[in-house]
Amino acid sequence: MTAEAVELAPLDLVFAALLLILNGALSIWLRLGITRSLFIAAIRMVAQLLLIGLVLKYLFAVQSPWLTLGVVLVMVCFAGYEIMNRQDRKLTGWWSYGIGVSTMTFAALTVTLLALSTQIRPDPWYDPRYAVPLLGMMLGNAMTGISLGLNNLLNTVSRERWAVEAQIALGETRDVAMKPFIRRALKTALMPTINSMAATGVVSLPGMMTGQILAGADPIQAVKYQLLVMFLIGGATGIGSVTAIYGVVWRITDPRHRLRLDRISESTGAA
Amino acid sequence: MLTIEGLSARLVQVGALELAAGDCVCVMGASGSGKSLLLRAVADLDPSDGRVALDGQDRGDMSGPEWRRRVIYVGPESGWWADRVGAHFRYPEALTGLLLRLGFSQDCMNWPVSRLSTGERQRLAIVRAMDRGPRVLLMDEPTGALDQESTARVEGIAHDFLQDGGIILMATHEKDQVARIATRLMHMSDGRLTPTGPPESTPA
């Protein structure tokens, strides 16, 4: 059962956008100082979504594996940049970017390929109609998990360096000394996924499912897709966060089990 | 015997230094001269080049943790990784005597770390190091936050450790302490060590 979707006219979107303008007016009135960032974010969203809409339309029409790969690479690069941007402290050199991008790509690609080859099975397997949105969701969630986890790990290890070093100075291995910090970072990385799984369907209807239903899909079909996506997101975020956090632990310690804070740059104070 | 030959770490250079069983070498020098960096390099907490050996066994031939179980660094800032004091000790029941000598009862093992004063933390950090049974103690300003009585207690423990064949390399600013405990005094300036003779001849 697929109902006909209600076609949206540009004017409908303009009316919806008025809500944001109302937010902006409130911000000016209450002197919240977020007007500028609110409008920049809104303009970025409109431009980015329109652009990706055009790209996807073209991509679906030509069905080229190389073009699909090109879009995937661009998405990965942007996500890596976002991971870097969300860190108060980074690893020196290109290590933060390297570990962030490689683990996120590994997790998102593995899970997307698994879904494409075993559950969704489109023809051709790289059909961009399935591959790109799926990968986008995996990348987005793995990116959030990894950036939260790494931010927590690097901040707490820097702040509590004496607690780590006290154990190392008493002859403990890096695994033992770093264990509580790894555990805390993993918890932080996975918390949004766990929260959204627990609240979904009761507190909130997920955006993807809502979008499908609004676009005319059968609710049960939409729920099935949402479940699949939630499981995949859980997998991608878990794999990405674990590999990224262990990768960073490997980098901020060395084979002699020393804590190498010289490999972490100073805090930039960024959010 | 702790042997240091051609040790080179960030801002620190040491030609040759040997500490026999029962030796307590005190290192004095201005703040920032490299005393702590020297101790950290010997403990293998910071990367360094050169040869450091204990009783003829090179530290390069063993893992970092193995070395640090024998050669323990007690820093000026003691780190605590669990909420309760007792969780930081391996054999708390065997430490009753040591705890009493430093002014604690066995009950302190149940205290939350957050209630410890700076001086209590410093004294308990020494007990914690002794709990691991080290052969060498690298003590960085071990009595910096202590009153006279507590300083005397810590020195008494250090003295017994030396009597039992232990080795101490200590960074300190206290000349009186050097006179009381050191078997040798060295001076550190710009990361270089120079002997200044027996501790008694320390210029005032």
Describe the structure.
With 271 residues, chain A is mainly alpha-helical. Chain A has two domains: 7-62; 64-263, no CATH class. Helix content of chain A is 75%, strand content 0%. In chain A, helix 5 (128-159) packs parallel to helix 9 (219-252) and helix 8 (207-214) packs antiparallel against helix 9 (219-252). The longest helix of chain A is centred in the last third of the chain and has 34 residues, at 219-252. Chain A is globular, with a radius of gyration of 21 Å. Chain B is α/β, with parallel strands linked by helices and 204 residues long. Chain B has a single domain (2-198), classed as P-loop containing nucleotide triphosphate hydrolases (Rossmann fold, 3-Layer(aba) Sandwich), CATH 3.40.50. In chain B, 28% of the residues lie in helices and 26% in strands. Chain B contains six helices and ten strands, in the order βββαββαβααβαβαββ. Chain B has a six-stranded mixed beta sheet with strand order 6-7-8-3-9-10, with helices on both faces. A four-stranded antiparallel beta sheet of chain B has the order 2-1-4-5. The longest helix of chain B has 16 residues, at 148-163. Chain B is globular. Chains A and B meet through helix 6 of A and helix 2, strand 6 and helix 4 of B.
Topology:
The complex is a heterodimer of chains A (271) and B (204).
Chain A (H helix, E strand, L loop, with lengths): L9 H20 L5 H28 L2 H21 L9 H26 L7 H32 L1 H9 L4 H26 L7 H8 L4 H34 L19
Helix pairs in contact in A: 1-2, 3-4, 3-5, 4-5, 4-9, 5-7, 5-9, 6-7, 7-9, 8-9
Chain B lengths: L1 E8 L2 E8 L4 E5 L6 H8 L5 E7 L2 E2 L5 H7 E4 L21 H6 L16 H14 L4 E5 L7 H16 L3 E5 L3 H7 L2 E6 L2 E4 L9
Parallel strand pairs in B: 3-8, 3-9, 6-7, 7-8
Antiparallel strand pairs in B: 1-2, 1-4, 4-5, 9-10
